[in-house]
């Protein structure tokens, strides 16, 4: 299996080394003729690359035509992001230092909307679509053109704060949106930029609520962009799992467990049968199918036949269609418990997220820009292999409604000695999300994301390709 690893070079604290390890390189296949195997490069903030001979990486080389014309835009985008770097850093640390759970992100909502109100040309709607901590901010160039959108997240996790790095997600989308708007202003580019403040990604489905309320449709969105920090390698074409939460309740009949157990109907037995049935089911599920469960109520006392039992279950799969089929099989396990014991069953669907399907046309634009900024995302073929995750996000629902990408950008979560520490949803990552180095890496992601948006605004073929690919995906995978 291909494993792409990004590590910090000990020789230079500002360098990132990307290497392809444990991989015997075959001759180049015909479909990879634009690609060359090269020695790995150390990337510095200056953009200067130095080859080393200890390992190697496969790199996609930009071809002439189309990309050269965008280099001046990338310079202007970089300048725009750097010009607000200190302000973005202040906002990031402020959000990080005031962690708020889903739909209670009042502080983050306030500082982001206050900041946007002070930016020239932006119209800000706080508490948008009857969601108190959502907002919509729009920059209109006044000229006809596409509508590019960015999603900002800012909710935290219970007990461990911003251990998913949503403070960084917020400033990447904010910085990218502002830089894109600045390019529209500087270069007389037509179109609009929309920044959505999307609360409650951590299980609350803020984007899904905005989507269902018509926020994206009302703003005539053409594409949707977001990023996410992590400890896995930089990647453009991140694909996430589809997710569904279920609350399960069994209703039986209470009886004395010693004196007259035959008078009872044991709801806990029904739940245990269901739980064990799911354990057996896992042997016949496909790779990428995940079923997790928790008993939330196992009865009141051990000496009674339990009249009530309940649990929560999470089901994940690699696609929305496969998830629907897997949920049916899991539900059959619940029904088996009820049938075997005579208990009544109630299944309450909870939040569900669709799988995120990355748009390759947008991903190519992001990858090219990211690599020109010193990044090392590999070829599209390797990017697809490396960018699959079992995590889930409500950006997945957006990707079934509009062309979308949700690239991952690597940040360091390591000990002083270089030992790998925890990734997202760990205390280690909470610390990593506020480092100065992480801020610099977030800025690079913001620049590449803005360059993707500007590409859509200035290149009709790119937008057409993205939309054609999206429509083809809809036909085969269905809408959220």
TrEMBL record:
Peptidase M20 dimerisation domain segment(s): 246-338
MF (Gene Ontology): dipeptidase activity
Ranges where the record places region Disordered: 414-440
InterPro entries: Amidohydrolase (IPR017439), Bact_exopeptidase_dim_dom (IPR036264), Peptidase_M20 (IPR002933), Peptidase_M20/M20A_hydrolases (IPR052030), Peptidase_M20_dimer (IPR011650)
Domain of life: Eukaryota
Record's signal peptide: none
Biased composition (Basic and acidic residues): 427-440
PANTHER family: PEPTIDASE M20, PEPTIDASE M20 DOMAIN-CONTAINING PROTEIN 2
Family: Belongs to the peptidase M20A family.
Protein name: Peptidase M20 dimerisation domain-containing protein
Species for this entry: Saxophila tyrrhenica
